Records
---
Amino acid sequence: MKNYLKILALIKPYKRYALLNALFNLLFVIFSLFSLTMIAPFLDLLFLKGENDYLEKMAKGQPELKLSMGSLIENFYYYLTNTIVQEGKEHTLVLICVLVVILFFLKNIFKYFAMFFLAPLRNHVVKDLRQNLFDKTLVLPLSFFSEEKKGDIMARMTSDVHEIEWSIMATLEVIFRDPFSIILYLFALVFMSPQLTLFVFVLFPIAGFLIARIGKSLKRTTNRSREQFGGIMAIIEESLGGLRIIKAFTSEKIIGDKFRNQNLVYTNTMIRMYRKIDLSSPMSEFLGTVVLVIVMYFGGKLVLVQSAQLPASLFITYIAVFSQIIPPARALTNAYYNIQRGISATERVSMILEAPELITDSASPLVITELKESISYKNVSFAYSKGDEGYALKNVSITIKKGKTIALVGQSGSGKSTFADLLARFYDCSEGGIFIDGQNIKDIKLNSLRGILGIVSQESILFNDSIYNNIAFGKENATESQIIEAAKIANAHEFILETPNGYQTNIGDKGGKLSGGQKQRISIARAVLKNPDILILDEATSALDTESERLVQDALEKLLKNRTSIVIAHRLSTIVNADEIIVLNKGEIIERGTHKELLELNSAYKKLYDMQIFNAV
């Protein structure tokens, strides 16, 4: 229920809509009740026998008008009697019919206005929830996404939000209207017959208890169904991303069977869930009917006794009013079941909304606009999870002077990419610290830190957009001439002009319409346009063919000139001119120096270099 209240808290910015909805719902209920209470005086006065009966009522004079239902009814009695005496029964009947039409018109117009103001309230709340989820995913650390299935996260952000919209938001109408209905109707019932209403107060809680038991069972089933749907989304996401490998290894049947089994489990759970949901309406209607029959029995006894403790007309009105309690009570029951389903989805959504933001700004962060002197790694160690015995980096210390190029080499898993990721604060150091111009990067505003960084990764990360927008990504004020110049430096301009629409050509999902080398050159052009103080090249030429590598390497050498750079490379021929080469093994620095110095050591770097020279031959 705590998570449910958190969702309802999103209503606060739109409380004017909620207040207007509540106001018009209240007016709707009042006019509904008033139209029903006309039954008693109508029956009493229209069917009185003889003119003397009417004259006797008139002789008593007009009752005193007070702010009570009894006073209103008595005055209405008097008005109808006077109309019958003066104008006749037929005229009075016409008057009552016109009055009923007016009352029902006002009742329904107020209902429409209540729904009119509920529509923006409901949709704005869902919009804010969806936006909050997306915003949160942008600030969560990369470690969060490495520990969770992307498909399940997508399910939480789509189907679970949809479930909240149709289970919780759809109940707002019931929540803002039906409690008014039940309270006012109960008040009228107590006024008409406290004895009969006592049965209502005793029997309704019993019915509510039975409904609550089923609701708890429904919530457990719904929890399982949401988790299983997340599993289905995970399989879909993984299969679409790895479709090339699935086909290459002829594993269609294996993946198909995996999905089929998960799909069957989910289907069976959904069948159980809908059976429980479908039980709610007939059960609530049956329980309401049982209460109604008990009230009719005891009310009938009160009417049939000689003392006539309850007038027949008032009893008929009582039954009519009581029958109007059953629909809102049933609606509240259905809303309760829907809320149980929604709470399950809300708990899954809250997992993202309440996930800790491990990478955050300090209380008073520093803002930097450039690298002035150096970058220093001081006794830096890092493990991807607490208690992890295998450190990705262990006790690394190094200083990179402004304008220098440092190259990182080593076997896969030696910690090269982790070294660069820590500088960008994709992760925070487990031990030690990283300093820019003497300032710990944890004390620097995150946006300004990443603002002076440019990254070209091994995997070209492009978006389903035009070439122009992919190059300009992150630099909204870039001009067309700047974008073209960046593409020329990255040796991408010529192939861009050969595409169907030039710079406005859409490159498809993840740049699927481009070759690997073309995608990488677009990524390099993006980094060139940003013109960062610190450039990180994470095996930026690994996806290029020999000719493209030569062209891009030439462009990179121009880009790296007089720029502080960290170059991660498997191809050692691309980093022979680096100011310093760091050789990593199992997260530790085992060698460091220039290309010439490391060859003279005749150790780990020399072996790596000789192996690549041998393989090239």
Note: Residues 13 and 614 are 68 Å apart (CA to CA).
---
Amino acid sequence: MYIGNYIFLVLVLISFAAYYKIFEKLGKPAWKALIPFYNFYVIYRVLEKPWWWAFLMIIPGVNIIMYGVIGYHTACYFGKRKTSDLLIASLMPYLYIAYLGFSPNEKWTGVEDLNKKTGGFVKNWLDPILFAVVAATVIRSFFFEAFTIPTSSLEKSLMVGDFLFVNKFAYGAKVSQTPLAFPFAHHTLPLTKTTKSYLEWLKLPYMRLPGYGQIKNYDLVVFNYPDGDTVALGEQGASYYQMKRDIANNEYMRSDKTKPFSFYESLAHDYLNGPDKPLGEITGRPIDKREFYVKRCVAIAGDKLEVRQGEIYINDVKKEMPENAQHHYFVKCSNFLINQNWLDKQDIYIDEAGQIVAENNFLSVYYFNNRKQEQFEFDTDNYYAKMLSTGDTTLYLLNLTVEKAEKIKSIPGVISVTKKIGKAGVFDPRIYPHNANYIWNYDNFGPFVIPQKGATVKIDTSTICLYDRIIDVYDDNDLEIKGGKVYINGIESKEYTFKQDYYFMMGDNRHNSADSRCWGVVPFDHIVGKPVLVFFSMKDKEKNPVSGKDVLGSITKNSVDGKFRWERFICFVDNDGLSKSYLVHFLVLIALLWGANKLYVRRKLIKEAK
């Protein structure tokens, strides 16, 4: 248990004792102050506040703010209405309440002089601001929270720049494990890049409220990024573990192969965590402060998953490809048909240098530059691109839906459009479980049975790589491998029973998605909720360098030429994509509400004038 948990418990007990003394001063039965939650009901009735505020004291994080609300009002009723008194009472309520209760000189003044001058801003604004924060925190914690789509893994179903509401009570809202946090911030303080927005002085165990639904195959799901338990602050958008593996793999490939790969992993760890910190400070994050990801749940707990030549099979049954799924296609042209402006208008993402991005920057990219037009040939066996200067054709690697691939085929000068599918039996070290015993890649993965709560699997040193992180990190055990044997919590183990359900998440953007194929399954305790509404959508200026920069000028432009994707404003989300836009309906509703309010105020003034 964290030391902060003990400190918080001591402060709460102090406040209980303080209210015992305050109840004595009020002539009320003092024993009521010692009954948890009932004491807050009595306190709020005494303070002439809604009795149901007592229920807010049950909610971790919210109850800390509500203590500030109690402190503020208690100070007022004791005649402490100077700015300094009210600020101290709001920021340090436990100790200030104790001072009011135990000091023989402090008397309860009640409501008779409550309207006396009390310190400007604090009197007029602090109380409503505190309660507004409370209300917003309750909504954000247990009902709906907004976040921005960070990656293109679900293009074109959900796009980079979509501002999304997630329904947290769909699968049961999680109680915050780090309640000491800056309101409305996730893991980083506003206007900073690396400063934590939370404190781990007080840390609660994992708890989840009941939900009204269960995760089903092919549901879109929002979750905390499992690989995000460790983060390099200089590269927060990338997996720390994958960067470490990449460094180790590069050194291993350059070596004489006389040392095991684990040796180079150790060197990579020392390099990243050494005094130079090439990728910035390395820090850990609790589950509820890890990055939000949204992907499609292709397999649920207990399913047997297999990917064969890019097609998904669940329990040996082939599943239909999502309507907006994208793949890499080789587009062979007789001339230089494709430029940055064309790609931008098609919402085909390129990076700042004008490169057409291949698989998460692992494959070599196809260089495109209007000033120096080169020719390419792709070596599919060795997974890299070679530049040639033959001048007869140009080969592009584009990320396309089936619909766009068909459209490009009809462009004059396009010779062929061929879907890129990786070969079976080709090992990709970036693919889970990152072990040469399992020769899997993006297009050929498994078979793999998704871990299910209560299910038992056989384990040994050859298969433990499939489950090591699940057992050690997600199920919170002490896993060791020594002497050719597996030990769990100090006991030699040949089988393991899972403590929770797990899910396999994939992006519809099949070759441009860091998903469960890369970092493994998602535990149920990482599940956040279900996406329900895209309320705003704007292009990323780095990914859409032509049309994604001008904000003010885009107000009068359409979605192709401007920054805003108007057809994606106020759209409901389902598993097949977005509904039609309800932006016009929303604006009409706002206008009607505004007009109704103006009419109400006018009639009220006329009535008062009479």
Note: The chain is about 30% helix and 20% strand.
---
Amino acid sequence: MHSPIQNKTTAPRRNDRALLTGTGFSRRQFLRGTLAGGLGLALGPHLWVRAAQPTYAQGTVFHDRTGDGRRRPGDPGLAGVAVSNGREVALTDEQGRWRLAVDDDATSFFVIKPRGWRTRLSAHNLPRGYYHHQPAGSPQQLYPGIAPTGPLPESIDFGLTPQAESDRFKAIICGDPQPRNAVEVGYLAQTVVPELRGTDAAFGVSLGDIAFDNLHTLEPLSEAFGLIGIPWHNVLGNHDLNFDAPDNRHANETFRRVFGPTWYAFNHGPVHFIVLNNIEWLGSDPQQPQASGNYRGGLGTRQLEFVAQDLKHVPAAQLVVVFLHIPLHRGFDPIPRGLTRDRQELYRLLENRPRTLSFSAHTHWHGHRFIGAEDGWGGAQPHHHLITGTLCGSWFGGAPDERGIPHATMSDGTPRGYLELHFDDQRYSMAGYKSLGRPWEYQMHIDLPPEIPLAQVTQTALTVNVFNGSERSTVRWRCGSGDTWRPLQKVEAADPRFVRLRERDQNLQPPYRGLPQPMANCLHLWRGSLPENLPAGTHLLEVIAEDMFGNTHRGSQPIRVVA
């Protein structure tokens, strides 16, 4: 068990050699590195003006003994804690003081939570380790943004409270909640909150599309998820934007008001986490003022500079986990808004590290991707990227259950649900995929007719969808306890069970909706043929699936062969 205090009032330094003058590194060094990297073409004039007439914010990071975020006499400063303005990263000095540039009239400052400490939480368990400096506030938009903050404070102080953080912990990782309205907020509250309340996870993460264009849902959903009882992080998604913003500059105002900065970092236990915003709003269309599709995937130079500066203070051997909304992998969506256009620049920052992992959502299907040389990744080993299944499933499509909540099976046949990510020092694992409302043991579905004519046995395909399976999984089956285990072949095809569900649910009456088109190449599907010598009678078909982490999952289904 790690002690957060270690009998002293200063946190361990993350980098004893880092400069504590000004921004933590000289502006001349920053400009030289920025221009050499090609960023000066886009940002050079702005940076030179700021260099000539810099404006700085300053403050302290302190041991918040009361936990309310207010510094009182006797609350000591904490040395070696990282603070950022979203581009630069500075480490606090011996008294806990920091100093950073104010880049423009909408700069967010935030503390990078060190191991063994926590920031203040809102009443609904949202992290509050940030300060928005936005003197004039947000522009007038359909959904309210940040109120005017007025002049720059003399001191922006961040309080941290000690907490025990073991080398072993877990986190809840969820894809898009994406409710359209209060009814769908209710669907999430009724299904997600009772299942996760009381979890021993250290924190939860929703990977974007917290809303479905209706930003009035952000706060009631956060109130509901706050009942789970753990800190909850939220990634920006393309449906969380202010669509009436003329450009990307003010497209995140409502999200920032509710949740804080759209990119930042934090530590928990021995792991470093980075939350990124890879949504770039291209401006509203006067002909379609509420259109939500005018975006592309990208990080931008300022955010990439933040990642570069942040990682300078993270040991090379430390596990780094990245959260974003649009997937990194190149293969799933050919249109520009379905790709992170500058992912190669992110790869350059990560690929020399031996331990990296990333999560996205956005697609409303679930799958593991291993990013290698064919995608420009230069690391010694492929980068593991997981496109995570969603809490809303297929946007709450499909027939309702007895409570009136749609089953919302996703287009690859995966039920709506989430992941439990386990950490043990620098290792990570996940025991499977958790389907909402189902027992943990439900890790697959087996697709076979319940009754098969004897003459059609050899023409009947056995299909198994292992929800958290990947190319690194093995799946075997047998029919009867005396049978031998046979391997199933991994295929990329549509899940036949989902195809039938979609056909069944296509004529639902409002307020219910049909299901989307089936995914043509489900990433976790296995197939085989029944043996030709299978006699008439009732048999128990069993399946064993072993995943990349060594977990073994079992499924079974009775089948009847009739003469």
Note: The longest helix spans residues 182-196.
